[in-house]
Amino acid sequence: MLVVISGPGGVGKGTVVRHLLERDPTLWLSRSWTTRPRRPGEAPDAYTFVDRQRFEAEVERQGFLEWAEFLGNLYGTPVSEPPPGHDTLLEIDVQGARQVHARHPDALLIFLVPPSPAEQERRLRERGDPDDVVRRRLARAEQEAAAAAELGAVEVVNDDLETTLDAVAGLIASARAAGPTR
Ligand code: 5GP
């Protein structure tokens, strides 16, 4: 089964994903490739960091399940198989979610939304992104929510972390129970 977590920058996807992986050892997080430079303090294995030329060569050889340009940088999910007995978790933007949905209509699509735009802005600033990036990410958030709704993604408000984790774990459990086609 494929589980896709999307949501605007600053919604707390990273935190939710980290805790989900701790809760459920049968989930396997796919590591994306990106041409974005590593942020100060960001883990070296947060992504496979590559230059544009390397990324484009991988697109050429059809090495990605999906890929997208997000605010000037390329991001992609390498084609891969999870270890036996695991379900794959993808943390990607909605353009990527659309491509996954097209190839795997049974994938579970979850779209996290912030409790409020003010809280989202606070989280983005806390992360240390420059001012113009914060503004572009906020503007982008509205388009993403509309696109996610169109895809039929399940919306989960990320206010209290434990409540969010319970909701997401519940969705995954239901999808698993729905059968092996997923
Ligand atoms: P960030 O630069 O904040 O790490 O990520 C920017 C956006 O790219 C986020 O919405 C994140 O979920 C998305 N993203 C990360 N990896 C991928 C990927 O492999 N494919 C796509 N389509 N989006 C990704």
List keywords for this structure.
alpha/beta, 182 residues, 5-stranded parallel sheet
Q: How large is the share of residues in beta strands?
A: 15-25%
CATH homologous superfamily caption: P-loop containing nucleotide triphosphate hydrolases
Gross morphology: globular
Cα end-to-end separation: 5 Å
Helical fraction equals 40-55%
Radius of gyration (CA) equals 16 Å
Tell me the strand order in the biggest sheet: 2-7-1-8-9
Averaging pLDDT over every residue, what do you get?
Answer: 93
CATH architecture: 3-Layer(aba) Sandwich
Order of helices and strands: EHEEEHEEEHEHHEH
- Catalogue the ligands: guanosine-5'-monophosphate
Q: SS-based structural class?
A: alpha/beta
Whole-number tally of structural domains: 1
Strand count, sense and barrel status of the largest sheet are: 5 strands, parallel
Look up the CATH topology.
Answer: Rossmann fold
Number of H/I helices:
6
Q: Class in CATH?
A: Alpha Beta
Overall number of strands: 9
Which stretches are poorly predicted, pLDDT < 50 over at least 5 residues?
A: none
Task: Describe the structure in brief.
With 182 residues, the protein is α/β, with parallel strands linked by helices.
What would your notes on this structure say?
43% of the residues lie in helices and 22% in strands. The protein has 182 residues and is of the alpha/beta class. It has one domain (2-177): P-loop containing nucleotide triphosphate hydrolases (Rossmann fold), CATH 3.40.50. The strands form 2 sheets. It has a 5-stranded parallel β-sheet with strand order 2-7-1-8-9, with helices on both faces. It has a 4-stranded mixed β-sheet with strand order 4-3-6-5. A hairpin with a 2-residue loop joins strand 5 and strand 6. Helix 1 crosses helix 6 (161-177). The mean pLDDT is 93. The site of guanosine-5'-monophosphate has 15 residues, from strand 5, strand 6 and helix 3. Guanosine-5'-monophosphate (5GP) binds at residues 9, 13, 32, 36, 66, 68, 70, 75-77, 91-93, 95-96.
